[in-house]
Amino acid sequence: MFITLTLNPAVDQTLAVDGDLALGKVHAVRAETRTPGGKGVNVAKMLAANGKPVIAAGLLGEDQLAFYNSTLAPLGVGCRFLPVPFPTRTNLMLTDDHGREMKLNRPGFPDLAFDESVLSVYIRSLATPGKVIILSGSLPARFPADTYARLIRRCHDKGCITVIDTSGPALAAAWAEKPEVIKPNRKELESVLGRSLTSDPAIHATLGKLMESHEAVIFSDGARGAWFASRGKIIFAESPEVPRVDTTGAGDTLLGQFCADYFPARLLTPEIAARAVAAGAAAVEQRGTPIISLQRVLELAKRVVPVSSVP
After folding, report:
1. Sign of the C-alpha dihedral computed for residues 123, 63, 2 and 44 taken in this order
2. Closest Cα to residue 89, out of 113, 66, 64?
3. No. of H helices and E strands in the chain?
4. Every domain of the chain and the residues it spans
5. Residue 206 half-sphere exposure, CB side, CA atoms within 13 Å?
6. How far apart (Å, rounded) are the C-alpha atoms in residues 261 and 268?
7. What fold is seen in the domain 2-309?
8. Which helix or strand (DSSP H or E) is residue 161 part of?
9. Average pLDDT of span 208-225
10. CB atoms inside a 10 Å sphere around CB 291
């Protein structure tokens, strides 16, 4: 059983505009999508597409409970959100015909105070031994940076496996609790390390060091692809070329596919790496945060030739 935890969800609204996206210009909207968003929710949708039992959990404004449930339940995603009496943010994405995009992300729950006791009780209701709990995304505006670190500690105390995908101080604090799987992108990893990764040998050395504290590491590198590291093995998988329509949720979809394949055996293979980057590419070629066809992932994975190495 997988549980995705999203503390800062968002409704993802994508507007496709005519012509070239540019500042100081009036844009005519020709298409619009509106989908339940939040990094953990996107992960959950990919897990469900693989037929995996998954529950989407976390915080959610009461205004969007019905929308999330009615949209996710038919996909096979169970919903166990903790309702809060504040509106769920809407994040806006503008895209044009050339793949250019502009993202406008609002802060989440700016008036919601952090209540560790309530959150701890909620987490304990979800966490049972053996479950894989995937903690994803940013934190509400007033939550402390070590929120995920505290939750990972409680999940480990309950015998759960943890996966973390966040950024900045929240990521740095979470790593100290040694979650089993981490998924930073280039910007996130370089920010925590305080240095640039300017070469493949530098990436190899960093992944080798991270494997000392984490069972598996995914280092996503945008359109280039992603690095996967686990138990002394490193695999690079170049992303297949697809039309770039909207990058929203691409990294989350990659993570969802990885988790669907990696658990429960917990053995990294080239095939797992290929399907993961293929899933990310499948997300890029669609608007918003849509449901990705597993058949499309498998088609794209045939075009991926993973390269294995050692640090």
Report:
1. negative
2. 64
3. 10, 14
4. 2-309
5. 21
6. 9
7. UDP-N-acetylmuramoyl-L-alanine:D-glutamate ligase (3.40.1190)
8. strand 161-165
9. 94
10. 17
